[in-house]
Specification:
Order of helices and strands: EEEEEEEEHEEEEEEE
Helix content: under 10%
Largest sheet: 5 strands, antiparallel
CATH topology of the largest domain: SH3 type barrels
Number of helices: 1
CATH class of the largest domain: Mainly Beta
Structural class: mainly beta
Strand order of the largest sheet: 4-3-2-1-5
Number of strands: 15
Shape: flat
Strand content: over 45%
Distance between the termini: 46 Å
Number of domains: 3
Length: about 190
C-alpha cells in the first residue's frame, strides 16, 4: 500500500536505518515548483539518538507497528529503570538515557504503558498529565508582582516546576508531561 508523507504524524513510529524511530516533531512544507516535504525529528527507540530526516513526497518509508502493554515501575539504579509486566510478571529494564525526562513523572509502584517492538520493550507512553505531590517550596509573598507570580517547587520524583504563589508543601498538583509545566491543583 502506497503511503503519503502526510501519514507521518507526531508519536508515530517509522523505520529509519533499520531501527524503529519515534517521531518527536514534524512539519509539512510545500513550496512552488518543488515537491512537498515533511521535515521530521526522530528519536531512535533502541539507541535513543535524536536525528532529523526530511521525507520527500513519493519517497518510500515504513511505518512500524508497536505493541503496548501495562507495566509497573519498580525502581531505578545507576543506568537502568526496572519494570514488571502487569500480565506475565516478568521483570525487564530500560536504559535511563533512552527514557529521557519521562522518569521525572513516574513514582515507584505506578502503572504505565510500555511500548514494544518485536516483543522487546523500547519505551514508555505517559498520560498527558500526572498528579504529583509538592515536597518542597518556599512560602509565597503577596505584593511583589503586579499580576500572579510563580515560584519553584520540588515534586516527589525530584522534578522542579514553576507553580503559583498559593501552592504550599504537601499539596497535590497536576503536571503536563509534555511541557513539564504546572496545570492545576489536583
Amino acid at each position: 500500500m502506497a503511503q503519503s508523507i502526510t501519514d507521518l504524524k507526531l508519536g508515530k513510529v517509522v523505520k529509519h536505518g533499520g531501527e524503529p524511530c519515534v517521531i518527536l516533531a514534524c512539519s509539512f512544507m510545500r513550496t512552488s515548483q518543488r515537491k512537498p516535504v515533511m521535515r521530521t525529528k526522530l528519536r531512535g527507540a533502541i539507541s535513543g539518538k535524536v536525528m532529523e530526516k526530511t521525507y520527500v513526497s513519493g519517497e518510500d518509508f515504513e511505518l512500524v507497528q508497536i505493541q503496548r502493554s501495562n507495566a509497573t515501575y519498580l525502581y531505578k539504579d545507576n543506568s537502568m529503570a526496572n519494570f514488571m509486566d502487569a500480565t506475565t510478571y516478568d521483570q525487564f529494564a530500560l536504559p535511563i538515557e533512552s527514557l529521557g525526562d519521562q522518569l521525572n513523572f513516574l513514582k515507584e509502584g505506578e502503572t504505565t504503558i510500555v511500548t514494544r517492538y518485536e516483543d522487546k520493550p523500547i519505551g514508555l507512553e505517559l498520560p498527558p498529565k500526572v498528579v504529583l505531590k509538592v515536597i518542597e517550596t518556599s512560602p509565597g509573598v503577596k505584593g511583589d508582582t503586579a499580576q500572579g507570580g510563580s515560584k519553584p517547587a520540588t515534586l516527589e520524583t525530584g522534578l522542579v516546576v514553576q507553580v503559583p504563589l498559593f501552592i504550599q508543601e504537601g499539596e497535590m498538583i497536576r503536571v503536563n508531561t509534555e511541557s513539564s509545566e504546572y496545570v492545576e491543583r489536583a
